[in-house]
Amino acid sequence: MKTIEALKWRYATKKFNPNRKISAQDLEILRKSVNLAPTSYGLQMFKVLEIENPELRAKLKEASWGQSQVTDASQLWVFCSYQSHNPADVIAFSTRKAKVQSLPSENAQKYAEFVNQSLSNQPVEAFQNWTEKQTYIALGGLMIACAELGIDSCPMEGFSADQYDEILGLSAQNLKAAVVVTMGYRSDEDTTAALPKVRKELSDLFVAV
Amino acid sequence: MKTIEALKWRYATKKFNPNRKISAQDLEILRKSVNLAPTSYGLQMFKVLEIENPELRAKLKEASWGQSQVTDASQLWVFCSYQSHNPADVIAFSTRKAKVQSLPSENAQKYAEFVNQSLSNQPVEAFQNWTEKQTYIALGGLMIACAELGIDSCPMEGFSADQYDEILGLSAQNLKAAVVVTMGYRSDEDTTAALPKVRKELSDLFVAV
Question: From the candidates A45, A78, A144, which should be mutated to test the interface with B, based on the most B CB atoms within 10 A?
Fold first, then answer.
């Protein structure tokens, strides 16, 4: 069972080999896994910034408690969720949906109105928590996609979203850094790779009701 | 590439076959996928309630805008995240970690103190958002594990967390319903199964910086 094998193989990589890069072909698969992840209503209210510029990487490392993965990993992806509701995003989605699924345009318009109505009733903070959560679904799938390709990864919450905002100019784009993923290949010196996983007993995690 | 195939195969199932059940063997694999999902610090601050009681299912359906998946799907799993920080949870984790990874107990104690310090500084609402997000990582992996086994699933946010709380007595257990997943096998009548997926262009979702 590939998913279980992938989940067992992966670990939160602490030290990457700075000289090994993920191939363009594998990167395209990883991007597809994110794009195919389910999101609420299918809206995909986030962007992924792929940070390549070494100077930006160095600044972001400082904004991430100096964690070496930010500069050493082959890839640094910053999942940025939308910060406020813009009805145009929903209209764009429902127009795309109508086209792809050959639906009458009236249906698309009605659906957009329904979703926009429901989103406009949300307080802004609830909206932000909700869009952030959507990026975590994609994150869960991405970790598995990486492992299946033999690619190491480290999901990271230990960063200052405010400093990321400042360095990357996110608010001006209606974005906020929700979660960061570094990906590449482990360094031989990463001693944490050999540590056994720590997990609850299934009977502690699952309760039949 | 199994992950991509799984993500392409899956869809948010609207109508389940109420007569087809997931085997005990497959259920154990699905539980393992949730248990192996990464979580922040490895703390796994959630429980999954597997709702089997038909009367509870009927009540929860009402609290889920009448969606038929809640009663018709083979499984109804309610991901419930912890609502407030209890230092004992972190101590239990670090004790388990020390045992599994053969670490000195002083290290475990220091680590628990560090994590407890960092969590006790969080406002309760931030804590709740954070534990909720962790369940979405597991959700992302679970959808892939299901698809790989040919099991249909539908992640659901359309429910009243307050009513779930009341029906399942969650607050008394320091829990809150974060997200719901129904799993089983699609009904032949689910016409949404044939609809093509609607996704952004990769160039709209990913931005190189």
Answer: A144
